[in-house]
Amino acid sequence: MERKGIETDKGNYNREIRKYNQLVKTIKEEIKTLKGWIGNLLDNLSTAYEKFKDIERDKVIDNPKLFNLTNYLLTYSEIQKEKSKYLKGYAKTNKEKYDFKKLISAYSYLRKNNIETIGQLQTKIETLKSNSYRLNKKAKTIHKEMEDVEKKILYYEIYKAKKEVYEEYQKKNIFTKEAFSQISS
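Structure tokens predicted for Nickase (185 residues):
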């Protein structure tokens, strides 16, 4: 009947299904574009957050008011005192003395090198590492040169001890030019 232009319930139902299918298709496309937009937004937010964390971490590391290494040393000293409370007699005295010496040594090192922040301490550590690597490499080179010199000295001593024997051997050798010329004439 639909072909003749007369509407039927089944035809109306099929038209409704096509409309809903088209609506579902457009909704899926919208959801797909929204997912892409949200994904880009999340990527941008995570990138911005990482940059912000780096900037804030650098501010904290280089700000002596927020985190002073001297205060950290004092806190560490207090923790060690708490630990030594449970020790008795000689052990307690030795631990407290050792911890105090360690605290004074660390504090004087920080003062001598004008280190107040974690960033400055890390920079100093990196500098010391690079210097240590360079000096270690140089020491290995010098050690190898010393071994070479020691070998040469040993060889010279052997040469010196055997020199007279070799010279005497050279004089008595029958294959010298003079000995050969005397034999052949």
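The radius of gyration is 44 Å.
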